[in-house]
Amino acid sequence: MNDRSMGDLREQTWVVTGAAGAVGTPLVADLAGRVGRLVATDLDAPRVPDGVESVAADLRDQDAVAAVLAGAHGVVHLGGIADEADLHDLAEVNVVGTYHVLEGARRAGVRRVVFASSNRSTGCYPCDVPVHPSMPPRPDGVYGAMKVAAEALCQLYADKFGLATVAVRIGSYEERPANLRHLSTWLSPADCLRAFRAAMSAPDVGYACFYAVSANTRGWWSLEPGAALGFVPRDDAEEFAAGIPDAGSTMRGPQGGEFATPEYTLSRQRH
Ligand code: NAI
């Protein structure tokens, strides 16, 4: 095992932030039997399966975050505001909060942080442009811009401090695809678990970034960086196309669709 491999997760302590959320709840259930000690945290102490520890911590509170990370080998950082919102709130929770996780991890000697980033960091690329994580960000709103900032912090902590960090750009996490955009962006619940398991355990990671998206026939994002870490999605939104009214048409304009409109951002700013 080299320095940057995680080794056996059954001998380790992992913390999951945002553990009460849509992605966190099933992820905690999945990891409960795979990780030696699992600590689930959210604004309020989350409901957890037997054997999992549950702790309340606000990501804006640096001391509270540091206390949760004590003794951890790895962190899956899902917590935050999960959609467009006032920039000041996004900066405080999603950027400063991520800094608290990374800095807490550095001080506690944590080896790896897996960060839930978003496809919305590149949502202003047109639908006909295949996107690879090495391309410059083109966020489709201030939520996406703050994800870009948090990804940059992940890169910084890898380059400067040797903390392994993996930015997982989640597609559209849904039980099943519900609209034309989802035919390109859907991340099935099962593929989501595959993506996070790979990000947690892939060997030899410094900084990595990949799209967590199912193997959609109409997909826009390269699956190669995920495959390099062992993430191989198995589901395809196309199997549900018959139930989507405009599935016969081709999506045009920015990949973010409605999220990329000016109104979507402006209507959520306080001033
Ligand atoms: P969610 O909104 O269901 O869960 C986020 C959790 O973060 C919530 O339980 C919330 O209580 C917690 N949280 C919010 N502010 C907090 C604070 N100040 N301190 C501590 N905890 C706080 O979101 P979901 O869908 O589970 O997403 C998880 C992560 O994945 C988020 O970071 C989101 O931005 C990202 N993501 C999700 C996508 C999706 O399709 N669900 C797509 C792209 C990215």
From TrEMBL:
This is Uronate dehydrogenase. Belongs to the NAD(P)-dependent epimerase/dehydratase family. GO terms for molecular function: oxidoreductase activity. Residues 251-271 are annotated as: Disordered. It comes from the Bacteria. PANTHER family: 4-EPIMERASE, PUTATIVE (AFU_ORTHOLOGUE AFUA_7G00360)-RELATED (PTHR43103:SF5), NUCLEOSIDE-DIPHOSPHATE-SUGAR EPIMERASE (PTHR43103). Keywords: NAD, Oxidoreductase. InterPro entries: Epimerase_deHydtase, NAD(P)-bd_dom_sf. Residues 15-171 form the NAD-dependent epimerase/dehydratase domain. Pfam families: Epimerase (PF01370). It comes from Micromonospora siamensis.
